[in-house]
Specification:
With 351 residues, the chain is an alpha/beta fold. It has two domains: 204 residues, 3-Layer(aba) Sandwich (Rossmann fold); 135 residues, Serine Threonine Protein Phosphatase 5, Tetratricopeptide repeat (Alpha Horseshoe). The chain has 15 helices and eight strands. Strands 1, 2, 3, 4, 5, 6, 7 and 8 form an eight-stranded mixed beta sheet that branches. Strand 6, helix 6 and strand 7 form a beta-alpha-beta unit. It is globular, with a radius of gyration of 21 Å.
Length: 351
Amino acid sequence: MPATVLLLAASPVGRGCLVDAASVLPVLAAVEPAVLSGADTANVVELADPLEPQAVLTRLRAAAAASGPLTVFVTGQLQLDRKQRLPHLALARTTPATVRYTALPWHWLREELRLRPPGATSLVLDLHADAETWQWLRANPLDVGRGNAVYGRVAPPPGRRAVASPTYMKAVATILRSGRRPPLEELHQQALLRIADEAPGLVLAAHGPAQDDPHAAISAAVQAGRHADAEALAAHHEQAAVRAHGPGSDPALHWSEVRADLAMLAGDPVRSCRTWLSIAAARLAAGQPADAPAVEAAVDRAHHQWGQLQEPADARELGAHLADLRSRVPGRREGALDHVRRQLSQLQTQG
């Protein structure tokens, strides 16, 4: 099966730009797809200075859904939103005041990669942080999710009014242009050696965990088409988490989220939508705020699955619950509640 490579380079236009991210794309694009991916054949998707976080999410979601190995090269800058102080990848229109609405939340990337098989996903990162985000990173790890290999660096902010060059990623691209992709750990070390005359900042180097992770067994079952087995394994771990931590606990809700994703992968949008709605309601009942990332993600995923429903009766039933949740959790996509209400209005005229 072919591999997938996602090349993402993004930074704000104007004074807020910390790194000339797009300058690395011509060098990376000159590398043969097979070398970029480390596989015989590969599909390469390139995103240069994208404008909208939803557009990036769509491409990321499609790449994450591919069954073969996935390598994600990300060059850009990290900023915190002012409300929740969570890291985002700044996009072309991002300013310090609009991070929440114009940048890609970093946890979106982690969430989209969550159900990929352990060891099937690699990330190569050359990120630059503004002063506020740099301080945040000193106390908080940049989470890319379990089971994924990550290599790269996060550089501190450049000098006043300076725009940095993505030297780490350019070094990676230059090495790959030789026509051979060494193991990623070796590639990472070679790139660091090439930029040894500068302070690399925060160095990122982590392998995915070993295959005894229960997520590995679930992913293997999905890859083999054994969806019922995958669901049974996830349900078993969910019940164990409920017994150990309670029904509204994060461990229990995590396994509920896994089951919602498994229903989607099995082609059962009714069960997936219903489960995501229950997860969102449980998180709100536990006192989590409406703009918490996990709450927003649950409602967004329920909304997406609702859009896949074929039977009007199912759409009406679940749409009523979705509209209620959307009134409390509007999310980041403008007009989401209006969309549900319009669709429900149309459904009322159907038999």
